[in-house]
Design a protein that fits this description.
Order of helices and strands: HHHHHHHHHHHHEHHHHHEEHEHHHHH
Largest sheet: 2 strands, antiparallel
Oligomer: single chain
Shape: elongated
Helix content: 55-70%
């Protein structure tokens, strides 16, 4: 379906919205998105007719992933997040009243993950978490946000009086302890900094770390220096800020169908010269029929009489035509996988060549035959069938007809994926890669990859969000290193403090602490 079909579906959906036909509009927008998942307009209109709050949030998140600079959509998404938090809170409190503590913990953890300053959610969580360590973290967060919260103060004092060493429990948690508590990563590592009243015995509070300073898409992804949206290079580190990449990131099914047809052409095309040579070799009683190929290609000496016999059995042009498309198909298959823009015209030419070769092969077959005329040549009697064509001849005809049909399918798919071979220059913006958002493993692996590429700012934001979902010592170490290279020593110290709570006895943390101290001395 051409690109105009997407526009038609989009306009049909908009017309249905204006007519008050929400369900029809939703169906039209969904069909349009299936044709072009990378156009933000479809997702934006779908958000307006989505039946649930979560679906509306998902649609606007897709828009933000495609258009991160869209301020109006960002404001709308923040409003939906607020509504989502309110709905989740009501759901969690209702589950608490019904005695479903597991579901209540799950929902309320989502609330504090989305809004770390939600006092009511932290207070409710403190009453249903499974361990005293989690309860203490929840209560400390309540008091950090509302220092005069009498109930939280009383509950925390009672908790510490029954467990004298509880003030140090956060410092003693190990990796296996944290991973055994589903809510622990969000509670321990995305909570706001905790403050303590005078006279309490508590760990040294972490330094004030301004992570929001990295919340600007036009910071340099390498050194986090402020850049102009139109800058080609970072004015500080001189790194390139623009990349050339395919216009379409998510490959559509039509591409895979086309690729499958091309693989079939390469494999099937390779069988045709094998059939032709085996036929000639069988007629001549030659077991190793590959010896005939150099003769057909003019690379081996052969008497005129033998050559005449060979070309009678299988005409030489037919052998050449059977080899040429196979070689070209293989080269263009490689080009299809790379999605080079220059390959597309070659692919169009290849479709035309296949049609021409199939038609010419059929013409040669019907005019010259495959050595199956009813005459004796040097004692070889050719078999004569009803239509003057033997079994191999029929196979060649069927094969060429199949090629013509497959070429039609291939050409149709090729027309649908023309944008897959287009490239555009894109500015590298400092934001989470949308394909790994919400995946702890994906965020960690992507952050590690950015560390290897020395894209320190990109690494920092991915690793920090990965730690908000699940604690990993390796992620802490890499995040500290990234912050050191960014010369954001406040962020490095903040990360190091949290890592110490997670793994107090880690030798690796001692090493990065030494690195941090050395860098600070150089200031």
């Amino acid at each position: 379906m051409a690109d105009t079909s997407y526009e038609e579906l989009l306009h049909a959906g908009i017309a249905a919205v204006k007519a008050g036909q929400s369900e029809a509009a939703r169906e039209a927008f969904i069909q349009a998105i299936q044709l072009n998942v990378d156009d933000a307009r479809g997702w934006l209109w779908l958000s307006g007719v989505a039946p649930t709050l979560d679906e509306r949030v998902m649609c606007l998140e897709k828009v933000m992933a495609l258009e991160p600079e869209n301020a109006r959509v960002r404001q709308g998404l923040e409003a939906l997040y607020s509504q989502q938090v309110a709905v989740r809170l009501r759901e969690g409190l209702a589950a608490m009243e019904q005695g479903d503590r597991v579901h209540a913990r799950e929902v309320l953890t989502q609330v504090v993950t989305r809004d770390e300053s939600h006092v009511e959610a932290w207070w409710a969580l403190s009453q249903i978490v499974e361990t005293t360590e989690e309860c203490e973290v929840c209560l400390e967060n309540v008091l950090a946000l509302v220092p005069d919260h009498a109930e939280a103060r009383s509950a925390l004092d009672e908790l510490r009086s029954t467990s004298p060493s509880s003030a140090f429990l956060v410092e003693e948690i190990r990796y296996e302890d944290v991973t055994s508590i589903p809510a622990a990563p969000a509670l321990l590592f995305t909570a706001p900094p905790i403050t303590h009243t005078q006279g309490e015995i508590a760990p040294v509070p972490p330094p004030t770390a301004d992570w929001d300073s990295l919340d600007n898409p036009y910071l340099c992804p390498y050194c986090a220096a402020l850049t102009d949206p139109e800058d080609q290079e970072c004015p500080v580190c001189d790194k390139e800020l623009w990349i050339t990449r395919p216009e379409v990131e998510k490959i559509r099914p039509a591409y895979w169908i086309y690729l499958g047809v091309q693989v079939a052409f390469v494999l099937g095309g390779g069988l045709l010269p094998v059939f032709l040579l085996s036929y000639a070799g069988g007629q001549l009683g030659i077991d190793n029929y590959w010896r005939l190929l150099p003769m057909y290609l003019g690379m081996a000496e052969i008497s005129p009489e033998d050559m005449s016999l060979l070309t009678f059995l299988v005409p030489r042009p037919l052998v050449w035509l059977s080899l040429l498309p196979t070689l070209l198909s293989f080269l263009l298959l490689v080009g299809t996988l790379t999605r080079w823009a220059s390959v597309y015209m070659g692919l169009l030419g290849m479709e035309a060549l296949r049609v021409m070769v199939a038609l010419v092969s059929l013409l040669i077959l019907f005019t010259q035959g495959l050595g199956i005329l009813g005459t004796d040549i040097q004692g070889i009697q050719a078999s004569v069938y009803q239509f003057g064509i033997d079994l191999l001849g029929r196979a060649v005809i069927v094969g060429n007809v199949v090629v013509l049909l497959a070429t039609g399918i291939s050409y149709t798919m090729l027309q649908r994926i023309v944008d897959h071979f287009s490239t555009e220059d894109r500015r590298i913006v400092l934001r989470l890669d949308h394909d790994v958002v919400g995946s702890e493993i994906g965020l960690w692996v992507r952050g590690r990859a950015y560390v290897q590429q020395k894209m320190w700012a990109m690494a920092a934001i991915h690793l920090r969000y990965a730690l908000g979902l699940q604690a990993r010592l390796e992620a802490y170490l890499q995040l500290v290193v990234a912050c050191v290279h960014l010369e954001r020593y406040d962020l490095a110290e903040d990360t190091l403090q949290k890592a110490r709570r997670f793994s107090p006895d880690s030798a690796e943390l001692d090493e990065v602490a030494v690195l941090l101290d050395e860098k600070r001395k150089d200031i």
